[in-house]
Automatic annotation (TrEMBL):
Occurrences of domain Xaa-Pro dipeptidyl-peptidase C-terminal (ranges): 396-665
Region annotation Disordered: where it falls in the sequence: 1-34
SMART domains to which the protein is assigned, alphabetical: PepX_C (SM00939)
InterPro entries in the record: AB_hydrolase_fold, CocE/Ser_esterase, Galactose-bd-like_sf, Xaa-Pro-like_dom, Xaa-Pro_dipept_C, Xaa-Pro_dipeptidyl-ppase/CocE
Biased composition (Low complexity): 8-17
GO molecular-function terms, A-Z: dipeptidyl-peptidase activity
Protein name: CocE/NonD family hydrolase
Gene3D superfamilies named among the record's database cross-references: alpha/beta hydrolase, Galactose-binding domain-like
Keywords: Hydrolase
Pfam families assigned: Peptidase_S15 (PF02129), PepX_C (PF08530)
UniProt keyword Magnesium, yes or no: no
Length: 672
């Protein structure tokens, strides 16, 4: 079904031919189910890559915005300019990016990508060098992001500005050249975002219409600002944002991630780098002194509390606390058109589909684009013959439609565009895919003959075991060479080879594997998953990590999705969990709070539900579905010291019990 959007915020169902009758005609045509965007996308790309409305841009890097509490934020304002470099006075829509990574880094990126000869050469080389099938495949997957458009969404987008926009890039308070204390997406920082929007809308170079764009942190604060519903905000383009920071990355399954201290340290270091664009002026007007005073007051924001919490478990930020409730965007409150981009193995993997699902608006006004990658390689390969348009092309089309009112057909793109793992790019109307149904496969102790390298080679069966069996597994550090490692490093480890991306057999040597028989025909898996396990440990805490894999006939085992849970965090919030029509648990939501932790009795089996990141995949003929169960996956999942003490010397075991079976619940087409 398509939608007719003749008035903002209203839509009526319409047959496809009605699209030709919409007010002003839009360019080309977009056949349903075309992930490339068809003729419409060709026009979008031509508009970005062709002759711009204005030949140059004018950049001011010394702009000061004073917040209502007196804190001075620093910004860069980029406006269209004529061929003599003179700033165009015509007011245009403004696109705002607010990020904590210091405008010094943004400027360096801008100078590199727009340097004469060098910039174009880098983008061309990025698009053309492809080492697929070799040991350098992961490296070229990373470098292809340069040509995929994400850095234009993140930093200064000169093509966008030359087409008739103003861009405003702001250092988050307490970072870059902005004053104040960094709040890490906190309440005052969210108020800053709204005040920035209001300030921009009132400037004589803005026509009163504002969009928000960003990648990662700036995508999250774009969603935060949108849920406040500021009047001037008309659209959001969010690349790899997040709506549940706790479960995605901070304390997945109740266990901290190695990514957080690494990331916090990097931002804290960057915030000590002053912006060199106006050093003398900053000293004369007192900004340098105020900046230095604020940095000294908070030299390493949250590092101490994070360390204290990790060592003692006495800090609220080690649990799902109101600290995080304040920071999670209230996606269901967002009313403006929102385009969200994600990846199946992103740091915020579950948010890729979760944000789209929670947006309460008709498809077309909301769009979802999900690739089969990580955090740092988003947009890699985009713009190819069978791929979605580049991210900068989609951003321009999105803002042209919703900020300028151009009937360019972007609302008919998607609305759900996904790179199916094991398959190709597809575009459709919904996630999960139509035609899948809830299925259950039991963990069985009989050998599949496909994972003899693992600690245990079992099967996934339609029937549970008929007798009691215990299978022991010990913690090891093989997770340091796995897709878990690549995910926790935001994709950086993919440059180290296929062991870190598409072949889990090394990690499986330390785990328990359970595999189906080879499928007789291509079989789709789409949607959330839950793994129920009956487990025990000799200690008073246990760590369980799980992956679900696609196993090729040659034995290559590729992780499709993952999850983890510490046994003490097994308490389930049923009101926030997802169930199938038959009552089967599809997505477990654990409390992960200090007061809801449960005791772990030594050597007594307990039932846990490991929630797995929703995914979309297809098993080709002859492939198997596999569940791998591990006693740990370091450093993807860390254990706070008090829990580590409780778990010391532990021997964990999976208890296959016909009275309390262990099984995978998922949605698939076809029968396993």
């Amino acid at each position: 079904m398509t939608y007719r959007l003749d008035q903002p915020g209203r839509a009526t169902a319409a047959p496809a031919p009605a699209r030709r009758r919409l007010g002003a005609p839009h360019f080309g045509s977009l056949p349903l189910g075309d992930p490339t965007g068809g003729a419409d996308a060709i026009r979008w790309r031509e508009q970005v890559d062709g002759k711009p409305l204005y030949p140059r841009v004018s950049i001011r890097r010394d702009v000061v915005l004073t917040m209502t509490d007196g804190v001075r934020l620093r910004a860069t304002v980029v406006r269209p300019a004529n061929r003599f470099g003179q700033t165009v006075l015509t007011p245009y829509p403004a696109v705002i990016n607010i990020n904590p990574y210091n405008r010094v880094a943004v400027d360096a990126l801008d100078h590199t990508l727009h340097a004469p000869v060098l910039g174009k050469a880098l983008r061309t080389a990025s698009a053309s060098i492809d080492a697929a099938g070799t040991g350098l495949e992961g490296l070229t997957q990373l470098t292809k992001t340069l040509s995929g458009g994400v850095f234009d969404v993140f930093g200064i987008n000169r093509n966008l500005v030359r087409s008739g926009y103003t861009q405003v890039i702001v250092d988050v308070r307490g970072t870059g050249a902005s004053q104040g204390k960094w709040q890490i997406l906190g309440e005052r920082e969210q108020q800053d975002s709204v005040e920035i929007i209001d300030w921009v809308a009132e400037q004589d170079w803005c026509d009163g219409t504002v969009g928000l764009a960003g990648w990662s942190y700036s995508a999250i604060n774009s969603l935060q600002a949108a849920d406040k519903r500021p009047a001037a905000l008309k659209a959001v383009f969010a690349v790899e944002g997040c709506d549940d920071i706790v479960r995605d990355i901070y304390i997945t399954g109740g266990m901290p991630s190695a990514f957080i201290p690494t990331w916090l340290s990097a931002v804290n270091l960057l915030k000590w780098v002053p912006n060199p664009s106006t050093p003398v002026l900053d000293i004369l007007r007192g900004d340098t002194l105020r900046w230095a005073r604020d940095r000294i007051k908070s030299p390493a924001t949250e590092i101490g509390s994070l360390l204290w919490g990790f060592l003692t478990a006495r800090d609220d930020r080690i649990f799902d606390d109101p600290y995080f409730d304040e920071r999670d965007p209230q996606v269901d409150r967002i009313e403006v058109p929102t385009f969200t981009v994600g990846a199946w193995h992103d740091l915020f993997g579950r948010s890729a589909t979760g944000i789209y699902e929670r947006l309460r608006m008709e498809p077309g006004r909301k769009q979802m684009l999900v690739g089969d990658g990580y955090h740092l390689d988003v947009g890699s390969g985009y713009g190819g013959k069978s791929s979605p348009p580049r991210l900068d092309v989609l951003e321009r089309a999105w803002f042209d439609r919703w900020l300028k009112g151009h009937r360019n057909g972007v609302e008919y793109y998607g609305p759900v565009t996904m790179l199916q793992q094991g398959g190709s790019w597809t575009s459709g109307q919904s996630f999960p895919r139509p035609g899948v149904r809830t299925q259950r496969l039991y963990l069985h102790n009989s050998s599949s003959g496909s994972a003899e390298h693992a600690v245990h080679d079992g099967t996934l069966s339609r029937e549970p075991v008929d007798h009691l069996t215990s299978i022991h597994v010990r913690a090891d550090i093989r997770g340091a060479m796995s897709r878990d490692m690549t995910q926790v490093t935001a994709g950086a480890a993919m440059a180290l080879g296929p062991t870190f991306t598409v072949d889990a057999r090394y990690q499986e040597r330390g785990g328990l594997s359970f595999s189906t028989e080879p499928v007789d025909e291509p079989t789709t898996i789409s949607g959330p998953m839950n793994l129920r396990l009956n487990v025990a440990t000799t200690a008073h805490e246990a760590i369980w990590a799980v992956t679900v894999n696609d196993v090729a006939p040659d034995g290559t085992s590729t992780v499709l999705t993952n999850g983890a849970l510490s046994a003490s965090n097994r308490a389930l919030d049923k009101s926030k969990s997802t169930y199938a029509a038959d009552g089967s648990l599809l997505s477990a939501h654990h409390y992960l709070s200090h007061k809801r932790k449960l005791p772990v009795p030594a050597d007594e089996p307990v039932r846990i539900d490991v929630d797995l990141v929703p995914t979309d995949a297809i098993l080709d003929t002859g492939h198997r579905l596999r569940v791998d169960v591990y006693a740990a996956s370091f450093p993807r999942y860390l254990t706070v010291v008090p829990d580590l003490i409780k778990a010391r010397g532990r021997r964990q075991r999976l208890v296959l019990d016909p009275r309390h079976p262990s099984y995978l619940t998922f949605c698939a087409g076809g029968q396993f």
